[in-house]
Amino acid sequence: MTNPPDRSARTGRPGAPTGAVPGAVLKRLAGHRLLWPSLVLLALLLGNLAFTHDFFDIRVQDGHLYGSLIDILQFGAPLILVALGMTMVIATRGIDLSVGSTVAIAGALACEHIAGSADPGSAGTVLGAVAVALGVAVVLGLCNGLLVARLGVQPIVATLILMVAGRGVAQLITDGQIITVRSEGYHLIGGGYWLTFPFAVLLAGAVVALTAFVTRRSALGLLIESVGGNPAAGRLAGIRAAGLLTLVYVFCALCAAVAGLMISSNVQSADGNNAGLWIELDAILAVVIGGTALTGGRFSLGGTVLGALIIQTLSTTVYTLGVPPQTTLVFKAFVVVVVCLVQSPVFRAKMSRRRGRPHTRSTGTADAVGRQQEVRA
Amino acid sequence: MSTGFATKASRLTRPRPGAGSRGASTRIPLLVTAVLLVAMFTAGSLRYDGFFSTQVVLNLLIDNAFLLVVAVGATFVILTGGIDLSVGSVVALSTMITASLVEHHGWSLGAVIPLVLTIGAAGGALMGWIIHTFEIQPFIVTLAGMFLARGLCYTISTESITIDDPATVSIAQTRLYGSGGLFVSVSVVIALVVLLLAFVVLHHTRFGRGVYALGGNEASARLMGLPVGPTKIAVYAVSGLCSALGGVLMTFYMLSGYALHAMGMELDAIAATVIGGTLLTGGSGFVLGTALGVLVLGMIQTVINFQGTLSSWWTRIVIGGLLLVFIVLQRLMTGRRAETD
């Protein structure tokens, strides 16, 4: 995508003064790549407020936080994690379609382990279940990574295999049943509270912070971007793409597994058939909305988190409005198309040619996104 | 060990499709598929009573006629190096539109089918147009199409719509008898006609050669003066049309329209195409191979049904395993020519 200085020159906010010193700050703000996702999220939240007046209310009850916003964070936590792993994969110009299956497998393994143990509530059992799920996720990630990095299979195809087979494996583990578990320790991961916050939110936040720290405070992020940006140049610069590729697929599988643990722990059961169904598409959508282009070479963790929250808010909105929840798909379709069009260089070029003045064009598209959201909301 | 072989193979896989000297290497996956199909049938015949009969083979066609049509459409797209994830949803949408118009609005089938086919083709063309004009990856555009079509299903109805319309039921239950009491359904005939048409179009028309050229190398195709844009739009339109027709056939098969019909069919269609020997990077493959691929998928299902003790999820696992084998086979055949793109 375009780099920030380039965008700041073209992305004017309505009424932003240009030239003056405060104007420069505004301009930087306007050119920030998180601006649009933030505005969309804000518009969605405000739209909700208009319908439900206590939407922003957060109250503390029994030492736990409650409220619609907390719900969005808690239910959005698995999606944030999956999207986080997906961001890394997409930064290498890859894609991982198998995360939904990994979510199902991780949940199934953990529940199977807990249900089969003598003492389902003990910390040892829960930790064992988590270890089993994460261990298998590493293996699954390695399979994807080796196919992509060593055999050179297109990522979409390589991960398609696990996407198809993984669902079957998850059902094989649960024997086609829904395994229900009663374990306080396990319930903590996805549905419990810690320090008044939902544990899932804290966990997702910690993983995001850690990832941001590791990728941005070391050269790792840059190396990953180089694999997606220009593999040939990266190879000439001596970057071992194969190792990095394997790493991102393993990381993605791990994130998906943690998300799978959260989802199954929240409902205290494992459903090999429906757990994490279509989460891969939501995750890709979150990444794209967050400004990480599918062509790789650049990623934005903050954007991904915002993207995931937007999708979760969209789902919540649809529930609040009482529209049949399945029609969320229609909204998502429009969001995908609009976001991709806005990101497409060809579309930008066409629009700028048509409208002439870059300023009006950019605000126009920003408005269009907002309007789209409001019309749908 | 295979560097020499790989480079040789990569030279062999690229020549103009339709030429006689295509090279044996692209045919190997096809050959493997054919052997696999025969082996599975033989093993099934030896193991289970009543497996070795022509009707079992015909039932394969009856049960998979709609998948065959959809997979043929997917083959067009995959040959150009694209991908269409919307096919399953478009099938579901077609069953919904057909069922709802026939049952709730009293339309005749003769009016509904052309409408459904037009919607499918127009939707596909629209996606192709977006892909071509704005240079967005086919994957993400057809993903949006998948969301949209599936979502539109729910706006029609969240419940399953059962069809009682006598005309539709009679067509669906018509059995075309051959010698010896063997029969096929009307859908099988339609599917085979579609397959034949696709074969002729791909191998004996200018458009078909354009499809292969586009998948082989888009830049070269453009430089050669081929109509890249119209071809691209057309393949997605073909895919949409085939999905819609597949949806109509599925409506006959299920005698209902339901938003949850054809879940995951896009994967089955892609799997059938790959198992049938079409390269996912485009430019090489056979539509008749796709038919073999569909039969292999159907055969897996049949064997699992005959076994009785195996649960349905084994189908998915076996299909996944087969996909793995064939994709690795493709890579070994073509070498590491194409970078991951």
General description of the model:
- The complex is a heterodimer of chains A (377) and B (341).
- Chain A has 377 residues and is mainly alpha-helical.
- Chain A has 17 helices and six strands.
- Chain A has a domain at 68-326: ABC transporter involved in vitamin B12 uptake, BtuC (Orthogonal Bundle).
- In chain A, helix 6 runs antiparallel to helix 12 (241-267), helix 13 (279-289) crosses helix 14 and helix 15 runs antiparallel to helix 17 (358-376).
- Chain A is globular.
- Chain B has one domain (23-334): ABC transporter involved in vitamin B12 uptake, BtuC.
- Chain B contains 14 helices and four strands.
- Chain B has helices spanning 3-13, 27-47, 54-79, 87-104, 109-134, 138-156, 166-173, 186-204, 206-216, 218-223, 228-254, 265-275, 287-307, 313-334, and strands at 161-162, 175-177, 183-185, 256-257.
- In chain B, helix 12 crosses helix 13.
- Residues 1-22 and 336-341 of chain B have low confidence and may be disordered.
- Chains A and B meet through helix 7, helix 13, helix 15 and helix 16 of A and helix 5, helix 6, helix 12 and helix 14 of B.
- Chain B: It is found in: Cell membrane.
- Chain B: Its main location: membrane.
- Chain B: This is Galactofuranose ABC transporter, permease protein YjfF.
CATH architecture of chain B: Orthogonal Bundle
Sheet with the most strands, sense and barrel status of chain A? 2 strands, antiparallel
CATH overall fold name of the domain at 68-326 in chain A: ABC transporter involved in vitamin B12 uptake, BtuC
The SSE string of chain A, one letter per element, is HHHEEHHHHEHEEHHHHEHHHHH
Percent of residues in helices of chain B comes to: over 70%
Task: Find the structural class of chain B using helix and strand composition.
Answer: mainly alpha
The total count of helices of chain B amounts to: 14
Low-confidence stretches of chain A: 1-20, 358-377
